[in-house]
Structures are given as C-alpha cells and as structure tokens.
Amino acid sequence: MALDQKQPNDLSAFWMPFSANRQFKKNPRMFVSADGMFYKTSDGRDVLDGTAGLWCCNAGHKRPKIVEAVQKQVEEMDYAPAFQMGHPKVFELANRLRDMAPEPFNHVFFTNSGSESVETALKIALAYHRAKGDGARTRLIGRERGYHGVNFGGISVGGIVNNRKMFGSLLTGVDHLPHTHLPENAFFKGQPDHGAHLADELERIAALHGPETIAAVIVEPMAGSTGVLLPPKGYLQRLREICTKHGILLIFDEVITGFGRLGSAFGADHFDVMPDLMVCAKGLTNGVIPMGAVLATSEIHDAFMQGPEHMIELFHGYTYSGNPIASAAGLATLETYVEEGLFQRAADLAGYWEDGLHSLRDCPNIIDIRGMGLIGAIELEPIAGEPTRRAFQAFLDCYDKGSLIRTTGDIIALSPPLIIEKDHIDQLFGTLRDVLQKLQ
Ligand code: PXG
C-alpha cells in the first residue's frame, strides 16, 4: 500500500477506539495539523476545536513552549528506568503539581492515562487501609453514570452501562451511589439547587455493607463523559462528611475537571471540598504526551513509609511512570497555564460562555442545557427507536461546517481549549444554532 500521510488508502488495519469504525471508514474525517484553536483537515479546511481534543488540550494546540520542551528532552534523554532510578524532571514536575494542587496534596504518583490513574488510586486506597491494619475495608463505591476510564477497576466503579455490560462480572465488592441528574434541574444555570440529599445514599450503602468494610468512594466532582452532570449544591460537602464520619477515603476523579476547566486548578478548589486522593491526566501534559497522576495526602503516603528502608513500599507502577518526555511536556504545560493565567481566563470567560450556551434553548429538540466554567452540554430528545442518531448527525454537520463537538448518547458536550476568544465562542454557538435548527 502506498503511504500517503494525508489520505491513506487502506483504513482496515486500525481498529479505532470508541468509534463507529464502519461509518468512519466509509467517510473518514482526518486531522493533519493543529495550531491554537484550530485543526486542519486532510482536505485543507480549518475546524474550530470545541472539545480541546478529548478534553485534554487545555492550552490549545502547538504551543511553542511545550513543543520546544519535548523536542529538547527527546534529544537529551529519551527514556530512563522508572523503578529504582530517577531523573530530575519527574521530581520537578511532582513538585510543580504539588504546588498547583490544593494544600493537603503533597505527593504524586505518575501513570500514563486517566484509566491507569483510577486503577492506581483504587489500589492505593485498598493498600492504605491494609497498611494501617484495617484490611477489612475492601469495598469500593462508585456512582451511576460515572466514568473512570476503561480498565477493570474503572468500569467496575463506573456507571456507564455500555462500558460495563459486555465485559463480564467485573470487580466484586463494588456498589454504586445514584447519579445526580434530576429532571427538575433542567436548564438550571450552574450548580443545581436540588439533589444534595442524594449523597445520603452513601449512608444507606454503608449501613447495608457495614461502614467498616468500605475502603473508598470515587466520584467525578462534575461528571463529564456521561454528558456533563453538575454536583447539586451541598452534595459534595455531604459526601465528604459521610466519608469522614465512617473512615472511608474520598477519591475525586479530576481527569476532566483538573487543570482549569471549571476556572480553578482543580474541582476540589472550585467546590471547596477536599478529597483524600485526586486522580488526573489529560490537561497535565496538554494531551501532547500521555501522562496521568494520582495526588495523595501526606497521611496516605506516610502510611506506606514503614519497614526496612531497602524495601519497596508500594508494589505498583508502570514502565512509563514519569517518562522523561512526558515529564518535560508536563512541566512546560503547567508553566504555560501559569504564565498565561489560563485558569483565571476560563473563570473570566465562563459567563460569556454560559450566555452563548443557553442562547440555544429555543432551538428544536432540546430537553436540557447545562454547563459550568468552560464546559457545556446540550441534551437532545432522542429520535424514537434510534438513540444517539440525532446527536451524531449534529456532530457530522458541525464538522462539515468547521466546528468540532463531542457527543455522548444524545448529549452534545463542549469543552474548548482555555485560550478560546469570544469570537470563537460566537462561531461555535453560531454553527451549533445553524445545525440544530435544521436537524431532523
Ligand atoms: N476519568 C475520567 C473522569 C475521564 O473523563 C478517564 C478517567 C480515563 O482517562 P483515559 O486517559 O484513560 O482515557 C476519563 C476520560 C468524552 C471523553 O468525550 C472522555 C474521556 C475520554 C475520552 C472521551 O467524554 N474521559
């Protein structure tokens, strides 16, 4: 087969992730370059990035500092063993991340993705209790509609049915809180008033199993992948209180909410609720090189630092944990966020964004609009008997008209790079209005 970078003539070998492979291969959509807020397609069109790639390119594309850092690092040292050896940049990155994170998070464990970070956090939670002599705490609690990546721990605590049902019996000893999506909150701006009581379900679950058997609760502070579900006012605080009361660790999965998406460094800052472990990825390296991390409090970290000093304290890690190129990308990314004040920028633009988002309310087939920071979701009434078709068509039409959006089920999700300008916001919502008005 001839190798044409712009348009390969054989698409059969690559089994695409989370994609309609057959639909795509009949009518491929290829990006060949990216700069700032725009992708360039193989047929030479500019497409406005309304999704920061997959919620990860928070500083936009082809950022000079990050490009240069990666180029320099790959020349200086490509790889260093991650176990029993170190290299300076990974320590530096851990320090920067600690400085950016809320106060109690003093320690950082590196992974290569959100999914790996979730597995790592769940394992740390279990091992922490065991290290403290509380080994009966083995149960994990997630939430309906939660997304915690695609590995077995993550889909076990996760609550998106299609991500679970094909894959066997999953982890045992897992239970789920109810999701927080209440119909009475439709079209509410910001955090909904109703639903804090849903956190009390944790008391019911704790009573059912015995609170002393529960190791951890994991939730996204704001559920992203399922279609943007905001925590009702007081809900996260209540979860925190119940976890503290019963000695249960609270894990925030900040893979989407981390690095400025809500206008603060992390969701924990934004909602002013501190978990015990925090999971991140995506924006950590601006999506440039895969990397994830788990942030832990000193209390958790120090519980492992016992026994003879030559012994490994935690039997967990990845070949690429803290890879030098990823570390260089991470450092340059965090510097870019700080130098350009991008988290504050997201906060400053949030009102304009929200107005644009809610201006679509009069378009046909819309049953809910929700958003926060630089996140938005538009929920469409599904076509009877053909779920997902309407939103997928909106995605295809927006792409044809030069805007990239995401869809999950019949929900359109938006999460642009934080460098977005007001005229890009106008363009994105203008395209959406056009598309939604004509959509069947
Ligand atoms: N936790 C959360 C909260 C996520 O959103 C993961 C874990 C897994 O991360 P990795 O890096 O293993 O993919 C995610 C990922 C979408 C979309 O459009 C969301 C994700 C990934 C791809 C697409 O909603 N979230």
Automatic annotation (TrEMBL):
InterPro entries: Aminotrans_3, Aminotrans_3_PPA_site, PyrdxlP-dep_Trfase, PyrdxlP-dep_Trfase_major, PyrdxlP-dep_Trfase_small
Name of one Pfam family that matches: Aminotran_3
Alphabetical list of PROSITE patterns matching this protein: AA_TRANSFER_CLASS_3
Keywords, sorted A to Z: Aminotransferase, Pyridoxal phosphate, Transferase
GO molecular function, one term: transaminase activity
Cofactor: pyridoxal 5'-phosphate
Family: Belongs to the class-III pyridoxal-phosphate-dependent aminotransferase family.
Protein name, UniProt field: Aspartate aminotransferase family protein
